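Hi U.,

Before I forget, here's the chain from the pilot set. I'm dumping it here mostly so it's searchable later in email.
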Amino acid sequence: MIEWWNSLSVMMKVLWGITLSASLIFIIQSVMTFLGADTGDTGLDSDVSGDIPDSPDGTADGADAHGTGQGLLTFRNFVNFFLGFGWTAIVLRDNISSTGVLMLVSILVGVILVAIVMLLFKWLSGMQQAGNINVFTSAVGCEGKVYLTIPGERAGAGKVQITINNSVREYDALTDGDTLKTGTRIHVTEVIDADTLLVEPLESLII
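Structure:
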């Protein structure tokens, strides 16, 4: 192993160092992604499967700020570029005699790999956003039950579970009437914000 390393040119040593480092980081990223870890704003990962709060205009908050979850200048994109660049240069080193042509081809492959990953994240982000429920347009009139007691006269918030588009969701809830105990059947009369609903007991609908 040492003899092989010593036999390499300076350029190949640099290429191997970059490629192995990028490969190791890529493996760590992949493992953390499959484990559902959020690696934050460094670009190590984009949690496309996380919940994105709804906004009144029907779009997901943060969708514009983060776009696809993959800005152009992110750590992940740098890793992907050097992964494609490095392995291409190593594999084709003996087939392309011109160093300039080899570098050009390697850079092109690196850029293509970055583009593919960005498109993949954009597609996954679009699927996730399409699955979001807009509480402002969908919750009013939905029925459910009290999960945690709701104090009367808006004295405090409790929690309810309601069914929206055949999906059971949990929200904070207030009521204008009497205290609603756990298990009380309710329906939604108003959406106060993305996380809080105004509810009343179903019995109040009986005349």
